[in-house]
Design goal:
By secondary structure, this protein is an alpha+beta fold. It has helices at about 10-15, 25, 30-40, 95-105, 120-125, and strands spanning about 50-55, 60-70, 80-85, 110-115, 130-140, 145-150. It has one domain: Aminopeptidase (3-Layer(aba) Sandwich), CATH 3.40.630.30.
Length: about 150
């Protein structure tokens, strides 16, 4: 991300979680801090266990990004975790999210955390083979409930 593109860094959260997280939390997100975190992720060496992918549409607009790596949970039922898949509104329904999951996870088993009330994301992950495995936590900064989903391969 360039300095000029960092001004749109928090759009996925503000858009996707507008009705799910407190408005004051979303309004207080820092584009600069967000851009710095993503710069660090994409600058990781090629052999790092974490991967971050950015998708740009044919018109040159940011369509989405995602990241995955080793599970961060002590009680993880799998070795891999899908950390994030975020899409621009214009990229929804275009296959970008499917491509991100395919590239980031391949055919590995994995877990992910998703906001419990995020029906769109939960439906997508269910379609991709993830199921609610029963673990619950609260997103500490917002008090928003999250669920852990797991994808097991036959």
């Amino acid at each position: 991300m360039t300095a000029t593109s960092s001004a749109a860094c928090t759009w996925p959260w503000r858009d996707a979680y507008a009705d799910l997280m407190p408005a004051d939390y979303l309004a207080g997100l820092s584009d600069e801090r967000c851009a710095d975190r993503w710069r660090e992720r994409v600058a990781l060496p090629a052999d790092a266990p974490e991967r971050t992918l950015v998708v740009v549409d044919p018109g040159g607009r940011l369509a989405g990004f995602g990241s995955a790596g080793p599970s961060r949970d002590e009680d993880a039922p799998t070795d891999s975790e899908l950390y994030a898949v975020n899409l621009a509104p214009h990229a929804r329904g275009t296959g970008v999210a499917d491509r991100l999951v395919d590239e980031l996870l391949g055919d590995r088993e994995a877990t992910l955390w998703v906001i419990e009330g995020n029906a769109r994301a939960r439906a997508f992950y269910t379609r991709r083979g993830f199921v609610d495995e029963g673990r619950r936590e609260v997103h500490a900064p917002t008090g928003t409930p999250e669920i852990r989903m797991v994808r097991r391969l036959a």
